[in-house]
Design goal:
11 helices; 2 domains; 364 residues; 3-stranded mixed beta sheet; alpha/beta; GMP Synthetase, Chain A, domain 3; disordered C terminus; Rossmann fold
């Protein structure tokens, strides 16, 4: 029986690709320790994204691979998730405790952006992250309803200047709907809306959050530009349907984020296919493959493709979105995949960011 060494263990780890980082654990820089004592091998890995539901299966797979190495009697792989901040938030009052801000946006309304934002927040929380959601859709706030928060609920005020977000389903929630009457429309001009958004962002006392998901209003107007310029956003998720008109507007959303130097993490395609509840027939009501074409065109990832499902709508309207209502269901699993991909894309964006040039001063 040959002796085992670190190089042999690393060689085994390099044979396995993390499906979210698209790299092996060694190349991805996830290895924190490899200990070899006789025929016993212990490996510690660290993932930079929330993966609570994935890490045990991933550890088991790697463990089996190492255990099959000649000379290994027993192998143990421990994986933990440590989410690092990827944008400087300290300069924004209220965001000092928030590690990553993720904007969920769409070029037009009616494509399921708010439902996606709610389920993304819940899925990230279910993966073990500490999560908040900010409803920045000032004209049509809906997150209060989706998270089952009773009409008329008001946030507490801390030190006479901070709104305390309302916690529901394990997520911190803040919305303009908590500060106004649900039946009163927001008849505001652009500057007033932008000011209200900035007040929500800067005067909400968020807890220690790994991710703050911002449900953006549809379009590419004042609010989007204000957020892009004033808030350090780690990345944006673009939501669309396969319909040509929706894709046209989604392209504008991608271009807008690129112009303000916010990375587009990927595209979510909603209402991709309808499965008849009676006969099981699948029909692409809004076209087919649109999200994939958009992702390919802009060199980003198609993060998820979701069906047109009555259950998704009913669960969101009922105050318990799919991830909370049917956590082990097929659609919830798609949202969990989405959450892991979003977290991993933030890690990869940071790794790909160019290093700041070194400035030297000489007497010459």
């Amino acid at each position: 029986m040959s002796a085992v060494n670190r190089a042999a263990v690393e060689a085994v780890l390099r044979q396995y690709t993390d499906p979210y980082l698209n790299l092996d654990p060694v190349s991805a820089g996830c290895v924190r320790a490899i200990e070899v004592q006789g025929d016993q091998v212990s490996v510690q890995l660290e993932l930079g994204y929330a993966a609570g539901l994935f890490k045990s299966g991933w550890a088991q797979m790697l463990q089996m691979g190492i255990a099959g190495l000649d000379g290994v009697g027993s192998a143990k792989v421990d994986i933990r998730c440590v989410i690092a901040p990827h944008k400087a938030q300290a300069q924004i009052p209220g965001l000092a405790n928030v590690k990553n801000v993720v904007a969920v946006a769409s070029g037009k309304g009616g494509v399921g952006k708010s439902t996606t934002a709610a389920n993304l927040a819940l899925a990230l929380a279910r993966e073990g992250a500490r999560v908040g959601i900010l409803d920045a859709d000032i004209y049509g706030p809906s997150q209060g309803v989706m998270f089952g928060i009773a009409e008329g609920t008001r946030p507490k005020v801390k030190d006479q200047k901070w709104f305390v977000p309302i916690e529901s389903l394990g997520v911190e929630v803040m919305s303009m709907a908590f500060l106004t009457d649900d039946n009163t429309p927001m008849v505001w001009r652009g500057p007033m809306v932008s000011g209200a958004l900035l007040q929500l962002v800067t005067q909400t006392a968020w807890g220690d959050l790994d991710y703050l998901v911002i449900d953006m209003p549809p379009g590419t107007g004042d609010i989007q530009l204000t957020l892009a310029q004033k808030v350090p956003v780690a990345g944006a998720v673009i939501v669309t349907t396969p319909q040509d008109l929706a894709l046209l507007d989604a392209r504008k959303g991608v271009e807008m984020f690129r112009k303000v130097n916010i990375p587009v993490l990927g595209v979510v395609e909603n209402m991709a296919v309808h499965i008849c509840s009676n006969c099981g027939h699948a029909e692409h009501l809004f076209g087919e493959g649109g999200g994939e074409k958009l992702a390919t065109q802009y060199g980003v990832e198609l993060l998820a493709s979701l069906p047109l499902s009555m259950a998704i709508r009913e669960q969101a309207d009922g105050g318990k979105p799919t991830v909370a209502a049917e956590p082990d269901g097929q659609v919830a699993m798609i949202y969990q995949e989405l959450a892991r991909h979003v977290g991993a894309r933030i890690v990869l964006q940071e790794a790909a960011a160019p290093a700041m040039p070194t400035i030297t001063v000489s007497d010459d």
